[in-house]
Design goal:
six-stranded mixed beta sheet; homodimer; about 35% helix; Rossmann fold
Chain lengths: ~240, ~240
Amino acid sequence: MSESSHVPKPYAAQAVVLLSGGLDSATLLALAKRQGYGAHCLTFAYGQRHAVEVEAARRVAQAQRAAAHRVIEIDLRAFGGSALTADVAVPKDRSPAEMTGDIPVTYVPARNTIFLAYALGLAEVLGAEAIFIGVNAVDYSGYPDCRPEFVRAFQGVANVATKAAVEGRPTRLVTPLIHLTKAQIIRTGVELGVDYGLTHSCYDPVGELACGRCDSCQIRRQGFAEAGVADPTRYAAGGR
Amino acid sequence: MSESSHVPKPYAAQAVVLLSGGLDSATLLALAKRQGYGAHCLTFAYGQRHAVEVEAARRVAQAQRAAAHRVIEIDLRAFGGSALTADVAVPKDRSPAEMTGDIPVTYVPARNTIFLAYALGLAEVLGAEAIFIGVNAVDYSGYPDCRPEFVRAFQGVANVATKAAVEGRPTRLVTPLIHLTKAQIIRTGVELGVDYGLTHSCYDPVGELACGRCDSCQIRRQGFAEAGVADPTRYAAGGR
């Protein structure tokens, strides 16, 4: 684990912000700061193919002056079972219809459960009152752990699992993006001054470039188009 | 992560068994095997002072012929906040009255939430139908994440978080020790042939010896006395 710290304002309430380095969590961080929280960003290096995301997270945390940024290495590869961590091909050039419905092969087993579990521990140690997580049920309805019912269930755990909860101060999960479209997220971030050129979304980058063809690239590109915002992403391919 | 495998019986249902190397989880493993499960043991090396527990877990898994044993390293020390992982003194020579009520300083923030989150991911990858966890609400009522309400809440997460859950096969949490006294656990294990000489409970071992004075040693010793079973533990001190 590595950590870099700015000096947090002592009077501000603290929040743990799950920061992947992608477009959604960069917007999430800006929303947490706008709500007045000292933002303790938490990024996981979990053997994902898109490790360049972790570097994006560092850039985003620094640019937005997070109170602190922690990177925790966890070994999800040992589990296998996902195209993001094992030798399974990342799907390319799928249509929106093909992306919805079934759980995609890029699903990582219990990923958000593991991330929230760590966030809960960190929140307890810090005395943070909230955990911000950028789950979104609109564009990625295929992931079981991005759904409102998942968030509600984990809130149930937070309500009983910690010393703070027993003492009547359970950590609160905050999911401001859960019902927003990608275009709405982008417009929100632009209003808050988020520099999306620092973020990374691609599941299968080609060096420094986004592939332009995986589900994530296609949804990102489409989101910028719908938002009427210039896409700062450098893509390797034009996509469909 | 390291792994050692025996060949699991292909026809048996699989379970993930959280194995600390202590007395309770050694009994838990025996119960999972008695119920016919192929037992995939999962042990966490989390920077605890009592790392000798991890070696005990290896011995127990081998002796009981677990289907597999995985050790995952996670860095809870980075969080601080517990006598088991940080530079806080482990309490010694406390009376039973002193042990109950307040949350002990040996509480590790969100520990069981983190352990169960990993177990859930592993269960999903393996197609395991159950997770066995040896939480106990009798002797350690001070830990918020050992209570029945915590287990119920995490079952709520398991019911929605995974692909298996969405498909109608949620992973089931099994907690056979939750309402047993230490003496009852020991008698159960003895009936199942558990070799408690392989297990380790002490929070603050002196080389190969148990300290004999921390809460865990005192509860263990008292349990053997109440069960009328000879205690195979080698203690450094006689305790109170």
